[in-house]
Amino acid sequence: SFMSSTGTFTYSAPEQELLCIFGTGDFGRSLGQRLLQTGYRVVYGSRRPHSCGPLPQGAQVMSHEAAAQSAGVIFLCVHRENYDFLETLVTQLKGKVLVDVSNNLKKNVYPEANAEYLQRLIPGAHVVKAFNTLSAWSLQNGPSDASRQVYLCGNSAEAKQQVVETATKLGFNVLDRGTLSAARELEDFPLQLFPEWRLPLRLAFGLTAFFFFYLLIRDVVYTYVEQDKDISFRIMVSLANKVFPIVSLIMLSLCYLPGVVAAFLQLYRGTKYKRFPDWLDRWMLCRKQLGLLALGFASLHVLYTLIIPIRYYVRFRINQTSVFDTTMAWRVDSYYAMGILGFGLYLLLGISSLPSVSNALSWREFSFIQSKLGYLTLFFCTFHTYLYGWDKFLRPSYYKWYTPPGYMLCLVVPSVVMALKLVILLPCVDRSLTRIRRGWERTDPEGDSKKSLLT
Ligand code: NAP
Predict the structure, then answer these.
(1) pLDDT tens, 153-183?
(2) Which residues in the chain are classed under CATH 3.40.50.720?
(3) Could you say which architecture CATH assigns to the domain 17-191?
(4) Could you report the per-residue pLDDT of 198-213, keeping only the tens digit for each?
(5) Where would I find the Ferric oxidoreductase domain in this sequence (predicted)?
(6) What gap in Å lies between CA 246 and CA 155, rounded to an integer?
(7) CA-79 nearest atom, ligand 1
(8) Closest C-alpha residue for ligand 1 atom 17
(9) Residue 16: what pLDDT?
(10) Considering only CA atoms, which of 142, 144, 150, 190 is closest in space to residue 167?
(11) Are strands 18-22 and 41-45 parallel, antiparallel or unpaired?
């Protein structure tokens, strides 16, 4: 500040940092607008500085050479296919921070990451990979509307620091992923398609298809062949309302099976310091998705069950009166009660798996809900299914064409899981497992290391 001739103080604003953007396309324009709003000065480098489209107000535009010379940081908002024009700018780009924001349409199209290719093209520049996981849209609308996370990587710590400062000023959370060798991973982020959902979705689809055809044959085809009666209308509601709970219960028990398998594996090996096989690792990692899909199927089951009283087929049959049977009343009410309790807990499990909720829980609270209440849910739902079967397990007439009904098949996995869990809960087994999980090993570790030295 200085004293002006009139005697009042005027403050000369500190000179704003000038940043350069190559490319006046969608991304370049959105980025420039955000930078200008944050208080930076922006200069565009373009192939056609005099005829490019509308640019954010306040930005300058010039040739690539002139723009590069005027700024220390250059955002390269051009597709990888067009990087070759940079080769003519090698001298202007020397020592500059070159930010690569590019993505590809598919994975593995090029042998090396775009940012690594850029670094090879301009060895004298400090290439930083950043911003590629944002969209032009989210840049324009501000981070409150879209992702706040910016990933970055690069070989020069100072260059990265400059980009971190800019991104932070723009309102993003920055996560440094290390050297430029991480660029490939960052470039693959926007191309991911629900990777952790793939296995659970395939499983859900496979189980649904299997049980649909299994029940179609047992219910509809069997009745048609053996009794010459067409009950195909049952496909829409009755069959669906058998398939969905079956798939739901199997998927729920598959959430808890890998934990039990892992416990037995640790007991068998007598140590926790050996890696689990890959399939078990992958299975453990998708438990949340398995559980959420199971919850989805359970919700469908609830909705289908709610419409039972208004179905034409049911109202038609209700007119046939019979004697009141108290045992039957107990059975049916217990069956519904178990189902309702199971579903209530199911919902709690689903809600507590939401990141905002689970982040607010302590480790003990989370494991209380997901493990203790989870097993209780599995128990209620399994018991619900046993009550549905009641005495039908022993009556041969229910084994049409020598096949067991669908709900009997679906009881296998949950029953096994609960039986194994009971074994683990036995005090002697529980004690060994706890010891192993706190680092105790059955075999003498010294002897083991000697053995591994010999082989
Ligand atoms: P765009 O709209 O097609 O703009 C690309 C710009 O590159 C053009 O406007 C042009 O600017 C310049 N250009 C085109 N051909 C060139 C050549 N042969 N030589 C030199 N410059 C050339 O693309 P965009 O959507 O802005 O994407 C730009 C980069 O951002 C890409 O690498 C993309 O992967 C990345 N990205 C985009 C988004 C998004 O949401 N759009 C999101 C993440 C990452 P001039 O005419 O001024 O030279």
Answers:
(1) 999 999 999 999 999 999 899 999 999 999 9
(2) 17-191
(3) 3-Layer(aba) Sandwich (3.40)
(4) 999 999 999 999 999 9
(5) 246-370
(6) 53
(7) 32
(8) 82
(9) 86
(10) 150
(11) parallel
